[in-house]
Amino acid sequence: MRVLVTGGHGQLGRALLRTAPAGMEVVALGSSDCDVTDPATVRAIVARIEPELIVHCAAWTDVDGCERHPERAWRVNALGAQHVATACAEAGAALVYISTNYVFDGERDEPYHEFDRPNPLSVYGASKLAGEEVVRALCPRHAIVRTAMLYDAHSRNFVTTVLRLAREQPRLRMVADQYGNPTFVDDLARALWQLVAQPAYGMFHLVNQGAASWYDWAVAVLELLDLAVPVDPIPASEFRRAARPPRNGVLTSLAAPALGIIMPDWRDALARCLTSRRAPESS
User: Which of 42, 107, 110, 150 could disulfide-link 83, Cβ–Cβ 3.0 to 4.6 Å?
Assistant: First the structure.
C-alpha cells in the first residue's frame, strides 16, 4: 500500500515512518513540500503520488498562536483539511484525519468518548472540529482520530520542555488542575497502522490509557530520569494563556477496543520513551 503522510516532518509523521509495517510504502511530506492551504498543490501531489491512503497530520498546533492569529488557524486546520479531503475523494483514496481533544470543552468530570458532543473553547479546537466536519462531508472512506498531548524523546514538546527547564531552573511550577492523556507518538503510530490494516472507518479516540495533569506528567518525567528537581502544583489561573484549554481533556475510546486496539498506560509509554535518553549514559 502506498501511503501519503502530510505533516510528515512532525512528531507523528516521523513516528509513522519509524513504525510502518512491511509492505507499506510511506511518502512523508512536510509543509515545504506540500502546502495544504493551496488546493492546486495538494491535487497535483496526490495525482503524482497516487496514494491508496492519506494520513493527514498537517496542522497548526500552536494553541495560543491560533488564538492570536485565527485566520491562519482556519486556513491551515480547516481549509487545509478541506483541500486534502477533496483531493482524496477525487483519487478514490482513504483518509485518516488527525484531530484533538480540544474539540471538547472539558466541563464534565468523565472522560470523553467518540460519541460525546464537541464544544470547543478555542480557535484551535474550533478549526480542528471544522476539519473533522469537512472530512466527514467530502471523503466517504475516512477515519477521524482524536488524540492528545503528543510527545517523543527529542522533538519540541512538553517532555523535552520539562527537561530543559529542569536544567535551567532550581524549581518548576506546573498546572495541576487541567487533565489529559499524555500520548507517546510511537504508540499512536502503531495504533494507526492497526486501524488502517482492518480497514476501519468512522470516529476513533486513540490515546495512551490513564489521565494526568501537567503537574503529574512533569513529576513522572523527572522521577523516571532520577532528576531531583522539585515541582510545585499551581492552578491554571496562575498560568496566563491566550487560549483556554479544556479543564478535563481526558479521552476514552468505545470504538478502538471493539477492533482489538488497546493502547498502553501513559506511565508505561513514558518509561519506554525515556529509555532512549538513558542509553548514552549507560554505555
Answer: 42
